[in-house]
């Protein structure tokens, strides 16, 4: 990437995303070369690109979830249509049998004349009763056949509509995936233009900013007193901690790799409480909880469009899968701009005693929002 292109990317990023970036240090680790963007501008540029990629990822995830629901609906309608067609075939066969039986039992005499000429009038009356019963059965068979045909037609139309919707969602998913890849490719190109010293300096600037913000948050008392989790929340926390060091991979839900919401949804699923797959759905569908009432296991959601999520550990820290090129790690809650928090188990009873899981060495190592080495 040329120096001019790099400056344009960073300048545009600063203008578009400055409000979304956590506070960073103003001191420069190295003096910016003439015509080159400053460290703060580079960091803001990277954060802007990452926000764009996360937004594209959230759109992709929502589309993928809708596609999965549409697949289930298409399969359900296809199965119902198959059953309806089987019932229709059985109804047609039954109607055919009744027609043959009625044809074989007919004659040129009316039922009244057969009754007068019969040697055994009682037997004739019984035959008439059987004939009447067969007529009623025929009428019922025709009614069932008509209803079955209508049901099969309705299900066939619904199945076709569902299939068309599924194809449209699949095409949209492809476009959304391409959009994410485009954003990630832009990040890779920008990273390739930087030296190792620049990358290290960017990470240091970012870390200094998040550390100061976390210290201020704890000192303010905004997080409230420490609260124990529920048994399910403890299970989710311990599962998430066991994933520390595993790589971030876009769209992954474990167990070998995770994206941000893949980690949170997997952790709570392993705890026996399934939750929505994407960060936006988690924010939209789970009960919200004030930061002052956070307890371990709650989910902290970031950015105005809910494009990132992490699992709260306690003491102002979260476990998260930050972004491509990084690994699952422990970070300050303030590593990204906080939108709010949600609770997957609002009706759960907190544990009477709780000991947080021990964190392995290096659990907090690596970048949170600074650019990774892809």
Unreliable residue runs: 1-34, 370-374
**What oligomerization state is this entry in?**
single chain
Largest beta-sheet characterization: 6 strands, antiparallel
Mean pLDDT over all positions:
75
Q: Using DSSP, what is the number of strands?
A: 6
- What separation lies between the terminal Cα atoms? 16 Å
The spatial strand order of the largest sheet comes to 1-6-2-3-4-5
Classify the beta-strand content into a percent band.
5-15%
Envelope shape: elongated
Helix content: 55-70%
Structural class: alpha+beta
What is the N-to-C succession of helices and strands? HHHHHHHHEEEEEE
Q: How many individual helices?
A: 8
Using only C-alpha atoms, the radius of gyration works out to 33 Å
Description:
The protein has 374 residues and is of the alpha+beta class. It contains eight helices and six strands. It has helices at 3-17, 39-104, 111-117, 121-192, 196-220, 231-242, 260-270, 279-285, and strands at 288-289, 299-302, 308-314, 317-320, 329-332, 338-342. A six-stranded antiparallel β-sheet has the order 1-6-2-3-4-5. α2 (39-104) crosses α5 (196-220), α3 (111-117) runs antiparallel to α4 (121-192) and α6 (231-242) packs across α7. It is elongated.
């Amino acid at each position: 990437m040329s120096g001019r292109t790099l400056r344009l990317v960073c300048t545009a990023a600063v203008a578009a995303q400055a409000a979304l970036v956590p506070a960073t240090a103003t001191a420069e680790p190295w003096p910016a070369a003439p015509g080159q963007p400053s460290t703060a501008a580079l960091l803001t540029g990277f954060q802007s690109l990452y926000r764009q990629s996360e937004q594209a990822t959230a759109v992709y995830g929502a589309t993928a979830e809708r596609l999965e629901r549409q697949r289930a609906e298409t399969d359900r309608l296809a199965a119902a249509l198959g059953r309806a067609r089987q019932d229709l075939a059985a109804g047609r066969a039954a109607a055919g049998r009744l027609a043959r039986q009625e044809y074989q039992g007919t004659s040129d005499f009316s039922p009244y004349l057969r009754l007068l000429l019969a040697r055994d009038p009682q037997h004739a009356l019984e035959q008439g009763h059987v004939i009447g019963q067969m007529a009623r059965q025929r009428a019922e068979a025709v009614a069932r056949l008509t209803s079955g045909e209508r049901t099969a037609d309705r299900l066939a139309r619904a199945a076709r509509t569902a299939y068309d919707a599924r194809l449209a969602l699949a095409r949209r998913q492809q476009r959304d995936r391409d959009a994410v890849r485009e954003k990630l490719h832009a990040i890779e190109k920008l990273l390739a233009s930087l030296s190792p010293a620049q990358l290290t300096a960017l990470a240091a600037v970012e870390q200094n900013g998040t550390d100061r913000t976390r210290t201020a948050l704890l000192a303010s008392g905004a997080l409230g007193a420490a609260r124990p989790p529920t048994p399910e929340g403890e299970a989710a926390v311990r599962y998430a901690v066991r994933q520390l060091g595993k790589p971030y991979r876009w769209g992954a839900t474990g167990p070998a790799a995770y994206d941000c919401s893949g980690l949170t949804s997997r952790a709570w699923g392993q705890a026996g409480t399934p939750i929505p797959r994407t960060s936006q759905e988690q924010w939209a569908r789970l009960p919200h909880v004030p930061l002052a009432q956070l307890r371990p296991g709650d989910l902290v959601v970031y950015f105005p469009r809910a494009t990132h999520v992490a699992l709260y550990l306690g003491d102002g820290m979260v476990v998260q899968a930050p972004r491509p090129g990084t690994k699952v790690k422990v970070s300050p809650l303030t590593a990204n701009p906080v939108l709010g928090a949600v609770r997957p188990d609002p009706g759960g009873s907190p544990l009477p005693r709780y000991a947080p899981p021990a964190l392995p060495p290096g659990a907090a190592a690596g970048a949170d929002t600074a650019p990774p080495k892809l």
